[in-house]
Amino acid sequence: MRPRTKIQKRAEELSQTLLPLPRHIIEKFSKETPKCNSKVYYAVLEQKKEFSVVRYFSFVKHKKKDNVCREFMQVWVSAHGNAVRAKQRFSTCNYYDTFLMDSPMEIRMNRNNGYYNRLTDISYSKLFVRSRKAEKVICNYRENQFYLIGKNYVWLPDDLHVDTFPFLETILKQRPRVAELLLLNRLQFKQEIVKTAWKHGYLTEELDYNLWSDTVSMAEKLHYDLHNPFYVCPMNLQTTHNLYALRLEREEEREERRRAAMKRMNDEQGRKYFENFIKKFIGFKVENDSITIQPLKSIEELKKEGEMMHHCVFACGYYKKPDTLILSAQVNGEHTETIEIDLKNFSIVQSRGVCNQPSEYHEEIKSLLLKNMYKLKSLTKKAA
């Protein structure tokens, strides 16, 4: 599309002055690409006037023929705004490998959830800094940031911005390799955990950060004090990880047993309540030439009714509700609808057929039951 804003027009103008990649960077691409006939994505950061420009390249390494390096997107970042120049995409999904490499490079709008400008969608292998001038720039791009670590930039996850996580800047300045390990592993740490580990000299280049993240996460689930270095900075990380995993597994087993016991207790209480309650309605029965309506007299009958009718009369424990009577309506001996009666006002709360849908006999069933509701009233008064 044609540039519309001043930022887009300026980016389009300066894009004409971009130079092809120098040989030494292409050689780095080749060196970094692990094997032949594989496609790897790289990014190059350079400074162009007031813009920091992130240029994205697709690199295919060949053994017997020339390597292929093609640029497919540029992100122009300035203090006053951003612009994206890219080749066309044949899909609106966020998968990065959907660029039409033969289409022209031009200004693209950030439609469809911004799939042209969400930099983290481009899963590049490494970002190279082309000039020393670019090394002095810290770029902000929408919700994402990248920060200079040594000679490479790394992305800061949304919840680890320097603004919201000021202690991160201390690590970035004093131990850039540690910061790189934290960030490149995309670890989600609370600030107080990182502070505790940093204070006690635990964050080293040799630390297995993924294993540490799992260990700290399990310690949190076990409700341990994460301000205490004993839990945050274990001497033997692997042993502690295995110990926490075992404790967590046992804790989950205990919780499962507790839930099962509670369910059994509730089921037993519900069963006793229902068996005592249903005694006064055992003799209730309403029928005509084809329809028969009578109570479900046991837990087993309720369960069978729910399974046959494909509804939740048993699973939701309707039989446990006070002042509620569950009836089954059969037409010519076939289960047709299940009825819930409110015994406070002797009304029909609901009458459901298979899969909660009304049957063709719905109105006839309701009419027959309402005509004989006085029988339920009589049984209730006698029981009282």
Outline the structure in words.
The structure is a single chain. The protein has 384 residues and is an alpha+beta fold. The protein folds into 3 domains: 156 residues, no CATH class; 124 residues, no CATH class; 102 residues, Aminopeptidase, CATH 3.40.630.30. It is built from 13 helices and 14 strands. The strands form 3 sheets. It has a 6-stranded mixed beta sheet with strand order 5-4-3-2-1-6. It has a 5-stranded antiparallel beta sheet with strand order 10-11-12-13-14, with helices on both faces. β2 and β3 form a beta hairpin.
Layout: helices, strands, pairs:
Layout: H1 6-15, H2 23-32, E1 39-48, E2 51-60, E3 68-78, E4 81-86, E5 106-107, H3 111-114, E6 126-129, H4 132-135, E7 139-141, E8 144-149, E9 152-156, H5 167-174, H6 176-184, H7 191-199, H8 209-221, H9 229-232, H10 237-278, E10 286-287, E11 291-295, H11 299-309, E12 324-331, E13 334-342, E14 347-352, H12 362-371, H13 373-383
Parallel strand pairs: 1-6
Antiparallel strand pairs: 1-2, 2-3, 3-4, 4-5, 7-8, 8-9, 10-11, 11-12, 12-13, 13-14
